[in-house]
Specification:
Layout (H helix, E strand, L loop, with lengths): L1 E8 L3 H12 L4 E5 L5 H6 L1 H18 L15 H25 L3 E4 L2 E6 L4 E5 L2 E10 L3 E3 L7 H7 L2 E2 L1 H4 L8 E5 L3 H12 L3 E5 L11 H13 L3 E3 L3 E5 L3 E6 L2 E6 L2 E4 L3 E3 L13 E2 L2 E2 L12 E3 L10 H15 L13 E3 L5 E5 L2 H6 L4 E7 L4 H6 L6 E7 L4 E8 L3 H13 L4 H5 L10 H7 L3
Parallel strand pairs: 1-2, 1-6, 2-3, 6-19, 8-15, 9-10, 9-15, 10-11
Antiparallel strand pairs: 4-5, 5-6, 7-16, 12-13, 13-14, 17-18, 20-21, 21-24, 22-23, 23-24
Bound molecules: 1,4-dihydronicotinamide adenine dinucleotide.
The site of 1,4-dihydronicotinamide adenine dinucleotide has 26 residues, from helix 7, strand 12 and strand 20.
Length: 455
């Protein structure tokens, strides 16, 4: 029986990074992956969707460049080609992960891993009928889409009429009518792309706002932008059934239906812990997710969990950091996971990015705040590059400590600007200290500096 210092279950962002770091630190490490290295993020999530959205951006620029002095005729988008390019991008990155693992002397085992109890050395793991042993385990098995018990959903998923993030990114045709159930991150990014390339998109969302926990004002601006582009939003609506060419929903007690050629189901994800053999060693779960402490330890000494499977923050960048914290704990390096400054981005056009508290969450925690709310037009570059842009930048400041605790942006480059804000929050910079920082000019990020002086 092969003995490893560490077996990592799952080769997504948490798993592959943990394996890389552990290998680098000299641990004899194996990572087990049943599908493809890179997990959902690389193969059917973050990366493929960004490839799609960038193609849409090129297309829109060509179509709507008149105000910028650009006219083009006969502009077309070839969706099948977009999918093919996306496949190349994915292939390139997945092979890069493989190379990194090799460089760090990690053994990659292909197959579905199941824990099979303890042994003298630590834990037994079975893959394709072969048993391995490991002194430590890291569970990074990720998450799967939530599939609600709505009549017709199961049948639709089986027939291909209903898709999740996995299938929609491989679909080569452009549906005339695309109905999206759930106006969260996946729903909005896909609504953005398919709206750009010509589908009639309807988003059915049960809350009265889109983009879930996003700042309410920013959520409204985003809604307005996409309504103007022709996306139909059915807010405060509950889906009650999926047919073979329509979706029915309840609005103010009345059942209505909307025509669909394809349906995207994007109502959230849940931790994946099925068939992992957690019960053979007694790993504790709560509502399906593995419970972890701030060192990413489970209740079983020597067993860690990182990424979506612990259900804390289902984001690839959280997973990376959790993976590092877990490995650092294993090798005796002091480190601890903090969740207060994790940025969140929605790659729509305009982009939305936020970090820390919103006015609402701060209020709920009883924090007395000051808020600066400025238009992105405070940035010269923003005005130079946008026609009638309605982006805003909001800063939330803890009055008592004069410290930034939240930044919320909608507008160009928001995704690239937010890490700076996260840094200011994470390092607990005082507002007066931030005012002393020099921002490059002309950039859109200057808006953050400008907003500070509005407090
Ligand atoms: P989500 O949690 O972002 O949004 C789900 C939406 O569906 C919510 O607005 C919810 O109110 C709504 N909903 C729930 N049940 C419903 C129902 N029966 N009918 C209508 N609406 C319903 O989940 P989503 O978009 O599926 O994304 C899954 C995960 O993937 C998230 O945790 C997200 O963080 C992650 N992700 C992150 C991205 C990013 O960082 N840019 C991109 C894509 C996904």
């Amino acid at each position: 029986m092969d003995l490893f210092d560490l077996i990592v279950i799952g080769g997504g962002p948490a798993g592959y990074l943990a394996a890389e770091r552990a290998g680098h630190a000299g641990l004899k490490t194996a990572v087990v992956e049943k599908r493809a290295l890179g997990g959902v993020c690389l193969n059917e999530g973050c990366i493929p969707s960004k490839a799609f959205l960038n193609s849409a951006k090129y297309y829109e620029h060509a179509l709507h460049g008149q105000a910028f002095g650009v006219t083009a005729s006969d502009v077309k988008i070839d969706h099948a080609k977009v999918v093919a390019r996306k496949n190349n991008v994915v292939k390139q990155l997945v092979s890069g992960v493989g190379m990194q693992l090799k460089r760090n002397k990690v053994t990659v085992i292909t197959g579905e891993a199941a824990i099979n109890g303890k042994c003298d050395e630590g834990f037994k793991v079975v893959v394709n009928g072969t048993e391995y042993a490991a002194k430590k385990l890291l569970i990074a098995s990720g998450s799967v889409p939530v599939t609600p018990p709505i009549p017709g959903v199961k049948e639709g998923l089986a027939s291909g009429f209903v898709m999740t993030n996995r299938e929609i990114l491989d679909m080569t045709e452009v549906p005339q009518n695309l109905v999206i159930i759930g106006g969260g991150v996946i729903g909005l990014e896909m609504a953005s792309y398919f709206n750009s390339i010509g589908s009639k998109v309807t988003v059915i969302e049960m809350l009265n706002k889109i983009a879930g926990p996003t700042d309410a004002e920013i959520s409204k601006i985003l809604l307005k932008n996409y309504q103007a582009k022709g996306v139909d939003f059915k807010l405060s609506c509950k889906v009650v059934g999926v047919g073979t060419n329509d979706v029915s929903y309840e609005e103010n007690g009345e059942v209505k239906s909307v025509k669909a050629d394809k349906v995207l189901l994007s109502i959230g994800r849940r931790a994946f812990t099925q068939n992992l053999g957690l019960e053979t060693i007694g790993v504790y779960t709560e509502r399906g997710a593995i419970v972890t402490d701030d060192n990413m330890r489970t209740n079983i000494p020597g067993v860690y969990a990182a990424g979506d499977v612990n259900g804390k923050s289902m984001l690839a960048h959280t997973a990376y950091r959790e993976a590092e914290v877990a490995v650092n704990h294993m090798i005796g390096k002091k480190d601890v996971m903090r969740y207060s400054a994790i940025p969140a981005v929605i790659y729509t056009n305009p982009e939305v990015a936020s970090v820390g508290e919103t006015e609402d969450t701060a209020k709920a925690k009883g924090i007395d705040v000051k808020v600066a709310n400025v238009t992105m037009k405070f940035s010269g570059r923003y005005v130079a590059e946008n026609e009638n842009g309605d982006g805003i930048c909001k800063l939330i400041v803890d009055k008592k400590y004069n410290r930034l605790i939240g930044v919320h942006l909608i507008g160009s480059y928001a995704s690239e600007m937010i890490y700076g804000a996260a840094l200011m929050i994470e390092t607990e910079l005082d507002i007066e200290n931030i005012k002393e920082l020099v921002f490059p000019h002309p950039t859109v990020c200057e808006v953050i500096r400008e907003a500070l002086f509005e407090l």
